Amino acid sequence: MPKTYRTEIIGYTFSELNEKVQKRLWENDDYFGHEVDFDPIVESFSTDLHETFGADVSTLEVYYDISYSQGDGACCVGELDVDTVFENYVGTSFPRLLGLINSGRVTIDAIKVVRDGPWNFYNHENTCRVDVHYSCDSDKVGDWDGEDVTELEEMLTSAIREELINLYSGLRDHYEDSTSFEAYCEAADNGTIYTEDGNIVDPAFIRNAHVSDAVQLKLDFEDYKDYLLKTT
Prior knowledge:
Layout lengths: L18 H10 L10 H15 L7 E5 L7 E8 L1 H9 L4 H8 L3 E10 L12 E9 L10 H32 L2 H8 L14 H4 L14 H11 L1
Helix pairs in contact: 2-5
């Protein structure tokens, strides 16, 4: 004769699981950290660089690595606006250079952030520097040898690297917040059903199931032993 088989599944939402089970799921989830959206942090950095240095956000390239390993950090490449740099940052720090520029004897052609040195396969701030491209008529600048431009490059490089250090710090903080246990609990409570030990219940098994509230009674076997002793 045909037989009917029924299986009962006691299901839990994530918030109903024991905290120990929740933390085990969080610690073993290899994909959760890959879903962090860093775009808002990078966009804020790009906006700040545009306002302070006139960076062209349409061509600015930002690289970062937060793998907590050697070489992690943040760097960037792109072109800075000459007028914005001199107005907002340089000011009157280089009076001789400014005099040569204002007199037309020196022209700043471009200011660029470029990758630098043998460590450019890393992504930390020291893998980029600022290059100032200029042209001049050597007959009109006298004994000026471009030393002011070199100092300007060093100053701008330090400033950009400081910005990148702050960017990296922001990326790390954002990653820590986004992958915290609290963030995982919020993301995981999405209607997925688990068994008591944290295994996901295949939705196909319970798609058309009759659902009722489950009540689990604690079984006290010590009391049962006392009962047997009294009745035997």
